[in-house]
Amino acid sequence: MPSPPMENQWWSWQNRRRQLVGVGPGQAARGLRVYTSMATESQLPMLCLLTAWMDELHRHRVAELRREVERCDLSIG
What we know:
Elements: H1 9-21, H2 25-37, H3 44-76
Helix pairs in contact: 2-3
């Protein structure tokens, strides 16, 4: 992934967050790792928010998958 232009850092981070919404968890995590490695000190608060947001999405997805497995197990038994 190319580095975002320096003069538009805030816009680029906002845009990156929007891009992460529409992709799968693995691709979003890879994209977040790339941008984290390129971050400057002033961008770290935004990265902390993005990381927390991705963790929360992951927890919700895992819970959703567990409910689906339980539902399927009950319907079989």
